[in-house]
Amino acid sequence: MPSGRVKWFSLEKGFGFISNDEGEDVYLAATSLPEGVATVKPGTKIEFSIIDSRKGPQAMSVHIVDAPVSLAENSRVNNDDLAAMIEDTIKILDKVGNGLRHGRHPSGSEAERLGRVLRGIAGQLEA
């Protein structure tokens, strides 16, 4: 099974990239993360299977082998960054609310992405 380390991952975007052991970049979708895992930190060692997608190699069936050492178990992001994330989320929620008032429900992928963002913010607030 191929392995590598997370280069970066964005909870808001719902994807990131892995640098596999051969140095190749591999696309990592949030939907490929293990159940209950919303995000991964850069440097996290993972194992995964690879499929060839139209965007290039994509990781599937991700298994976390070793997470990087953290100084604090649930460290908070910078307050200014968290405030900006909350403000952006409010704008997204306003858009969703207005759509619902007009009978438009968010698509499954939009709803899933919004749920991940809200869970990520909640985790930061609870930390």
Give a description of the structure.
- GO terms for molecular function: nucleic acid binding.
- This protein has 127 residues and is an alpha+beta fold.
- The chain has 2 domains: 64 residues, OB fold (Dihydrolipoamide Acetyltransferase, E2P); 48 residues.
- 33% of the residues lie in helices and 31% in strands.
- It has a 5-stranded antiparallel beta sheet, with no helix packed on it.
- It is globular and about 50 Å long.
Number of separate structural domains? 2
| Helix content estimate | 25-40%
CATH topology of the largest domain: OB fold (Dihydrolipoamide Acetyltransferase, E2P)
Q: State the distance separating the first and last CA atoms.
A: 34 Å
Largest sheet: 5 strands, antiparallel
Low-confidence stretches: none
Blueprint (SSEs and pairs):
Blueprint (H helix, E strand, L loop, with lengths): L2 E8 L4 E6 L4 E5 L15 E9 L2 E11 L12 H23 L6 H19 L1
Antiparallel strand pairs: 1-2, 1-4, 2-3, 4-5
Helix pairs in contact: 1-2
Q: What characteristics describe this protein?
A:
alpha+beta, five-stranded antiparallel β-sheet, globular
Outline of the structure:
This protein is an alpha+beta fold and 127 residues long. The chain has helices spanning 79-101, 108-126; strands at 3-10, 15-20, 25-29, 45-53, 56-66.
